[in-house]
Amino acid sequence: MFKAKLKAEVLKTILDAVATLVDEAKIHVTPEGLSLKAVDPAHVAMVDLSLGKKAFAEYKATDLDMGVDLDKLKDILKLAGSQDLIDIEYKEDAHKLVFKLGHITRRMSLVDTANMGDPKVPNLSLPNQVVVLASELQQGIKASEAVSDHIALVADGKAFELVAEGDTDQAHLRLEGSELIKIQAPQKSRSLFSLDYFSTMSKVVKATDAVTLNLGTDFPVKIEFDIADGNGHIIYLLAPRIESE
Amino acid sequence: MFKAKLKAEVLKTILDAVATLVDEAKIHVTPEGLSLKAVDPAHVAMVDLSLGKKAFAEYKATDLDMGVDLDKLKDILKLAGSQDLIDIEYKEDAHKLVFKLGHITRRMSLVDTANMGDPKVPNLSLPNQVVVLASELQQGIKASEAVSDHIALVADGKAFELVAEGDTDQAHLRLEGSELIKIQAPQKSRSLFSLDYFSTMSKVVKATDAVTLNLGTDFPVKIEFDIADGNGHIIYLLAPRIESE
Amino acid sequence: MFKAKLKAEVLKTILDAVATLVDEAKIHVTPEGLSLKAVDPAHVAMVDLSLGKKAFAEYKATDLDMGVDLDKLKDILKLAGSQDLIDIEYKEDAHKLVFKLGHITRRMSLVDTANMGDPKVPNLSLPNQVVVLASELQQGIKASEAVSDHIALVADGKAFELVAEGDTDQAHLRLEGSELIKIQAPQKSRSLFSLDYFSTMSKVVKATDAVTLNLGTDFPVKIEFDIADGNGHIIYLLAPRIESE
Fold first, then answer.
1. Which domains does chain B have, with CATH numbers?
2. C117 falls in which pLDDT band (50, 70, 90)?
3. Which residue in A245, A149, A237 sits closest to A194, CA to CA?
4. According to DSSP H, which parts of chain A are helical?
5. Is the CB of residue A172 less than 8 Å away from at least one CB of chain C?
6. What's the pTM?
7. Do C105 and A171 touch (CB under 8 A)?
């Protein structure tokens, strides 16, 4: 069984985080909260999301997997203001989720989870860690979009850099010392990433929140941040591009 | 003759109410106010609108019919803020309407009314009546749009329901008791309507205003509401769809 | 050399003023400020812009021409709020402009100025002069757009008129006496202009600012206004259309 009540904005954060990578997702529900892992069709990016029961106004569940069509969920969320409470209940017999908002009841069929795998989150050893304000990262991405379709993330001692090199123009974000929330970069690292994927992921974080980047050289980047006032957590993994020079 | 002055927002309400059904309309003017009846090209919906002279800041008219191109009227209204006063005068010799807003004068040719009929509003005996806040109705419509292209309106005793049934999903608005402004439904009624038409009509009402629905089984719905602070009134009739089951 | 710091909104005003006519522009820099002349590809309109060094927070330059791709400049300005300060520096060796905003550095290649001419601003003797609030002009243009693709500008004694004549409809802005900031129209003048061009130019002026129109009969209109709190000035010349009657 699964019966919960939560603020629309929390559900929206989850949806935004996952819908950037996949159209359907398998949500795993336990008495302690929900979790979800998904890999995008191109196998370039992975999301690993968890939301504890404290993120909910009410929560009651047993172990359960639910296949959700994210576009349908998007339609339902359009009915709610960010602070509205949404009731959700799993109807096992009909294999449906029932949403209640105000005087509206919406019944949504679940999708079959038989073909949805359980992605394994690889255990990566990434030597460098940078904690930065999301707004800084988002500004660097915006500057890069006019210049190139990929960016390099560089960490070295006390400085973090986001670099986009176009044929004629360049964009460059450089943060060091107190401009960073934290940096630990014992050895210089540099990896190249698709700007499109990195941008999509970075937009999920609130501008005023902190985001942690775990970096190595020619290694995936692990992007981590809290959601739902610290009662939930998102990890993205993004594979590097091969630098062709 | 016709010479009047009114707030742009009143003229806009009229325009919005009628332009959803037709591109051109014949406005009938009398010393007491104006009125207008129109049927959409598919003969599915009808509007019957009246606006008393109290809705105007100034009003002077003799009996007169004017054929108006509603798209042109829309262009003129774009020049005005909602609280701006617009002067309108009929120039018989040139067969034009002259609008004045601030230092702007706009002359608009009228269209020939020879081919515009005078729709007869059918006299329907609809057993049930529901008065509901427009915002509730609009929320029910929004929920239905993701699910189906038609809806059922149901009245029964103390409850009113708007139901959309899709192939796999459902949307459902249920209002009863104090959630309704008024209900009088001595016998259960249910009719099916095109969501598109019903949505368009329901958007004309201000969210915070009351709207009256007169309902029967497999009968048209009669949608009524006041405009211009009670100095005008709109009636829509919408034909039912045949339920194919 | 060229090294300056200015508010984003000042740079944006320049960009908007010029990008309406051309995609690339040659900016002439001197120790006293910058200037720019450009003619649109159809040779119908010309802009003559000057911005004194007082418009800048910091300014240091020697004589220099820089060819700028205006679309690229637009991308860079998207990174800044209107009150943000932007650092600009010309790098002679790389033939680039380097912009700094917050922690972002953007390097932009300059374009070759060899094929960009130096338009001569014709010396016109226009008998009439009208000074009007930009918002009035913009309202007149908006009213005209639904009616025609060209407008007549008429000055006569104490009145200024903007007239659009369609096949069936007309739009008309008339300002006289105290509705104008100033008028000096010893002889009646009337010229016809492309509404599209005139509209684009008039939108560059802030609605609450004054704009000066210098007018003759079948002569170009000279549109003048200040920018950057009076530390800069824009002159547009727009060729008349031949009246076909």
1. 2-109 (3.70.10.10), 128-238 (3.70.10.10)
2. confident
3. A149
4. 8-19, 70-77, 134-145, 195-204
5. yes
6. 0.91
7. yes
